[in-house]
Amino acid sequence: MNCIIIDDEPLARRAIELLVGENSLLKLSGVFNSASAASAFMDQNQVDLIFLDIQMPKVNGLEFARTISPDTLIIFTTAYTEYAVESYELDAVDYLVKPVEPARFHRAVSKAIAYHELLLKQKIAQIEVMEEDYLFVKSDRRYYKVEYKNILFIEGLKDYAIIQLENSRIITRTSLKSICEDLPKDWFYRISKSNIVNGKRIHSFDNNGVYIQQYEITIGNSYRDSFLNSFFKRKNK
Question: What is each CA distance from 30 to 26, 40, 70, 80, 84, in whole angstroms?
Fold first, then answer.
């Protein structure tokens, strides 16, 4: 599992880092002293598990947790016990009180690994069948066949992905990141934190947006270069 540590205290970060190093099933991808720095990293990288402090300046851990995809698991690490109830309301895997005992840490990690395996199985069920030119997505207890050619763009909204078609849309409970991983990379382009577009349906674009029929989809600053380079590279093949 790819994991990161977010804590504004250097000694606390180092303590968790050492514990992570003792578990061969964990891969430490980054260590951050603020939620904003971690958020920028997560926009570009897959993170399965976060060891998250609660009391931090600017954006605290509880506030940050509310913005995270349900596909990313959270283990809170804090010196304060009074946030335990609120942390579980946010579906945290566990709540560790500093100084964190190694045995307690590894029990929490075991729970996270087991839950991660369940999430992977759920993802397989969510996008059940992947074929050459279509996929099936679950919406309102039914699976719908969606042909790639009919998708205009896909918008992420919290825990859901909204697939915009010609004259309708399908809302499915999955993260935009998850559905992006299952789409053909030579067909679809992620142009912002919230949007994936069908390259074959693009009518025009500029530095700020992509235009598909009557829709204008904004290009995110951190995605602009990657989109333009990959789009032109594939068009020139």
Answer: 12, 12, 19, 24, 25
